[in-house]
């Protein structure tokens, strides 16, 4: 216990040092052992047994007394003078916080001190709790997902609300409801919500801007929004209400495990191992840093595991992966396969295409992944564009970007760590996305005289060579009982369809040195073709000539209307310009 020492100074206090023990004796359990070299203050005595004083540098000579305590005295008055200044804590720069644990305020904003490069003041790491530097929003609207500074306003996107905060100014309202803006010393002024209960959900990656327009999605409400000078508008309702309602519902916040098999050429792996490997993925997936690469062995306990440290995209679904450790396969015959495993999350990637003046939105759900029993993932997606000029959604695209944006009049998309520039018209690279060629597709409807049953006989189009018809089909005629009683589908939907119509170049063939066209024929730069019915004859249907099972095919299809899909071929100037101006069909009343 503490000892009391008489001193002759005014206003003094005692401090107790850590006890030390003699290394020669026994030490009680829980005490600290010290070898005697613990620092002591000169001139301060150390009390031993029966008032025996040991020098500071010596160890107690009494073996059975092992524990002793060191003390020192400090004056509370400077220099020990009478009525001198008392030792005090002095002025505290900041108030203390009673609660020292971290606090997550998902609906609040905070700002630091100023940065002034002219005067050298840099207080960006100073957050003074003595100042009012926080601003909170309504927590019932969810967490803050994104903030965007526009002129002298700060636009704040919560999950279920969009607001704007005034910067360096505040709003004052009169008793009559009129408003006026005045300057203020607050960095973040009054927060004013936009009309409408819309937010950005948890998809801030869908945000894009151009000029005074801002675009984003609200997954919780199944809509795509535009924020402009006239407030917020649902642009998804321009002919795409059902589509976005259904597809945004597939966007999930959960991370799901994805495994993709690939074959590894074990013959190229040297005996000392290989620290990089080239893989071909089976779908549209993209490996990520830290992905686990597993080499399967006939003995599951001997599977080899390494991790991806760097990714080089070689084009298409081909990648070169740099690994954390070299792959070693002692016996190639024991190798049974390999796969990459990583986690994926649904995304709604948005960006502005400054070349076409379109808002581009890519819906990338992971909800089609039903399990890893087959290590497969369908990984479907849809990339679509909105055009302000026609106030509608104009086209689907076949690329699946990680990030998209525009810079200096050019439109770029990213996939993984690779960047691609679109609309490069200097070379024939149209329809090439991420080193893969994709056909252009156009779907349209022929629907003249809607109440008359028609027989569509031909199709023609104006434009460049290189277009073909993949499908020309009538509307569904309703379900009826299948005549084949052994069929697994007792009820079937009936519709007339045609055979594929090849393009002008793809359909060329020669017979006895005479050139014919099995597809489109060109007449004065107009491409025309007959429609050949490719449907099975149905009960009660009148078919001219022998039936389709062994006779002549029927010309044309019957229906109130017809849906048509045309696409570019892979024969005529692949990657070149192929324009389609107009399409028409000759028909007669059925």
Topology, element by element:
Layout (H helix, E strand, L loop, with lengths): L11 E5 L3 E2 L24 E2 L5 E2 L12 E2 L2 E5 L32 E3 L4 E2 L4 E2 L11 E3 L7 E7 L2 E6 L3 E12 L5 E15 L14 E3 L2 E6 L4 E6 L2 E4 L6 H8 L6 E8 L11 E7 L11 E6 L6 E12 L2 E10 L7 E11 L1 E7 L4 E7 L17 E6 L4 E6 L5 E5 L2 E6 L2 E4 L10 E2 L2 E2 L3 E6 L7 E3 L1 E6 L3 E8 L4 E3 L9 E3 L14 E4 L2 E4 L3 E3 L2 E5 L26 E3 L2 E7 L11 E5 L2 E3 L1
Antiparallel strand pairs: 1-6, 2-5, 3-4, 7-10, 8-9, 11-12, 12-13, 13-14, 15-16, 16-17, 17-18, 19-24, 20-23, 21-22, 21-24, 22-23, 25-26, 26-27, 27-28, 29-30, 30-31, 32-33, 34-45, 35-44, 35-47, 36-43, 36-46, 37-45, 38-39, 40-41, 42-43
Q: Could you characterize the architecture of this molecule?
A:
Strand 17 and strand 18 (231-234) form a beta hairpin. This protein folds into 4 domains: 1-89, no CATH class; 107-197, no CATH class; 255-345, Thrombin, subunit H (Beta Barrel), CATH 2.40.10.170; 442-589, no CATH class. It has 590 residues and is mainly β. The strands form 16 sheets. It has a 6-stranded antiparallel beta sheet, with no helix packed on it. A 4-stranded antiparallel beta sheet has the order 11-12-13-14, with no helix packed on it. The chain starts with 11 loop residues before the first strand and ends with a strand. It is extended and about 130 Å long. It is built from 1 helix and 47 strands. Residues 16-44, 47-70 and 368-378 have low confidence and may be disordered.
By DSSP (H or I, 4+ residues per run), the number of helices equals 1
Q: Roughly how many Å apart are the termini?
A: 114 Å
Main beta-sheet strand count, sense and barrel state:
6 strands, antiparallel
Rounded radius of gyration (Å)? 39 Å
Q: What is the count of structural domains?
A: 4
As a percent range, the share of helical residues equals: under 10%
Percentage of β-strand residues: 35-45%
